[in-house]
Design goal:
- It is built from 15 helices and twelve strands.
- With about 400 residues, it is an alpha+beta fold.
- The strands form four sheets. The protein has a five-stranded mixed beta sheet with strand order 1-2-8-5-3, with helices on one face.
């Protein structure tokens, strides 16, 4: 008999599975790795997670489009493989370049070191370090400064929460996002217009993503100004909250592992950002920014066809793709319950897979380790006393994590 799951019940199920992912998903990986119950699906094994994320024809991100439309308009994070997606993806990839990575690393180190130098024996890893550094570096690179960091963070978090997390369509979350979008759109429109005027006047302008987008030749797929605004809003909303959370939860995990934290600090002191990154990304495997991604089954299809676990997923089903579970699948990951910094990058699904692999993957593979290096390279850190030393949340986002800096 089919089981009807209301949207609000789906939201509750996502939360409860997330709260108990380790206890629930391990037995599912073994005994029932693919779940299909009425309009709901869940995949838990690494091969199946990558199959679903890689099959954008059957498993779509179409559910994000209506919310994006009311916020600003379509942008690549919520587009399936269409001519619009390919055009805008090509335009953004032409201006967000691999050769920019050293510049982003240096900017991150500089901003992070300023924060540590100004601290007096204690710093909040979220509010006083990660959030202002990420905002400064990433919006500086994009060319999209907000009125101030608190406003930019509020805009990004509220928009992200409605578009990507509000599966229960709570009116309060939607209203808050629409209000903030009403502030953010004219702010960016004015900034884009001012930059375009400066370019036309021959004024000196920064070599950032916005300038590059505005200077793209028409025959190379140049985006019009409203499309530029759509995608910049999408990049800001999709970038700042997720990187901040990823950094915060990784630091929380390392603080729970004193031996690994000590070795990560030594790597930072030695200037080995690649090794620092290995500690951070391994910490994220145990405590991820998100435990699953949501996809909608566009056409009835079978996952893991030809295997004993082959399961039909119905058209319209909401499918939770359990990325954290995939990173603990012993069929794909060696010694998954050990904390190891020698893992191949393929073991990680932090940034998704397939068509909608995180657009910022290459940047974040150096930006997050640089952020960690700036925090860890100096005084030894430990939890601040009391409640301040534990990771705190404001809704879905980390809001505080105090650490003491040794003399």
């Amino acid at each position: 008999m089919a089981v009807r799951i209301k949207e609000s019940a789906t939201a509750t199920l996502i939360r409860r599975l997330g709260d108990n992912s380790g206890r629930i998903l391990a037995p599912l990986r073994r005994w029932r790795p693919i779940v299909a119950v009425g309009p709901f699906g869940l995949v838990t094994r690494a091969d199946d997670v990558r199959e679903v994320l890689g099959d954008h024809e059957h498993f779509t991100v179409s559910h994000y489009a209506p919310k994006m439309a009311e916020i600003t308009g379509p942008f690549i994070l919520g587009l399936d493989d269409t001519p619009l997606y390919r055009r805008e993806d090509a335009a953004l990839n032409a201006v967000i370049r691999r050769e920019d990575l050293p510049r982003i690393v240096e900017a991150t180190l500089a901003a992070g070191r300023e924060r540590i130098a100004a601290a007096h024996g204690r710093i909040d890893v979220v509010a006083e370090f990660a959030d202002p550094v990420i905002d400064r570096v990433i919006t500086g690179y994009f060319g999209t400064p907000g009125p101030d960091t608190p406003t930019q963070l509020r805009w990004a978090r509220n928009l992200f929460e409605h578009i990507f997390l509000n599966v229960g369509d709570k009116p309060r979350i939607r209203a808050r996002a629409l209000e903030d979008a009403g502030e953010m759109r004219p702010h960016l429109d004015a900034h884009i217009a001012a930059r375009r005027a400066a370019i036309a006047a021959g004024d000196a302008v920064p070599d950032d993503v916005l300038t590059r987008l505005l200077r793209q030749p028409p025959d190379e797929g140049r985006l019009h100004d409203i499309a530029i605004r759509h995608n910049l809003i999408g990049l800001i909303a999709g970038w700042i909250p997720t990187v901040s959370k990823a950094f915060a939860v990784a630091m929380e995990e390392l603080l729970d592992r004193p031996s690994e934290l000590e070795r990560a600090q030594q790597a930072a002191s030695d200037g080995d950002q690649e090794l620092v990154g290995a500690y951070v990304f391994e910490a994220l495997r145990f405590r991820p920014q998100t435990w699953a991604l949501l996809r909608i089954c566009g056409e009835t299809t079978t996952v893991a066809a030809g295997t004993e676990r082959a399961t039909e997923i119905r058209k319209g089903a909401k499918v939770l793709v359990a990325t954290q579970s995939a990173m603990f699948d012993q069929r794909a990951v060696t010694a998954p319950h050990e904390f190891r910094v020698d893992r191949p990058w393929h073991d990680y699904v932090h940034f998704g897979s397939g068509l909608h692999t995180c657009f910022g993957l290459q940047i974040n593979r150096v930006h997050i380790p640089a952020l960690a290096t700036a925090l860890l390279e100096g005084p030894r850190i430990s939890r601040a006393p009391g409640a301040a030393g534990k990771l705190q949340f404001d809704g879905p986002y980390p809001s505080g994590l105090g650490v003491s800096l040794a003399d």
